[in-house]
Fold this protein.
Amino acid sequence: MIHLFASFVALPTLTLVIAADVTMRYFVNRPILGAVEASQFLLLLVFTLGLNFTTLTEKHIRMDLLFDMMPRRMQLGIEILSMFCGIVLFGALARQSFDDYRFSIMISDATEELNIPVWPFQFIMLVVFSLLCVQLVVTTLLKLMPTPENSKTRKSARPKSLEETGVK
């Protein structure tokens, strides 16, 4: 649900805000007040709200050409190492988001032009990064558990022959 909001609400809104601001700036010489601030916050939402879904579906960037040629044990080691790095990184970001969230509420921090409170965006980052840490821990534990799928050699995501595609 979160990534759907990012995909179908935040991203089109970001596109419209930027297009309207550029149009107003170059054709009428009057940029839209607060368009840059709105664009910054919308871009933050698009990025952070898509992280969990990208991780869940394993659509993150990886060098599949090399990765698929590696032995299964090496693939598993690389996946565990990258998940551990992700847990450390997003744990640190969650911790910092928590501190920033509390501080923003304490000082009533708001944007300069539109006077939008900053704390809701910091709270969103706190929730997303915390959920991502939990998701990475669970995924790591599942990958470490002995299952028939984990013990077999991983099949390449791409079919090697026409017969494997199922196309007749």
About this structure: The two ends are 36 Å apart (CA to CA). The helical segments are 2-28, 35-56, 64-67, 72-107, 119-144, 148-151, 162-165.
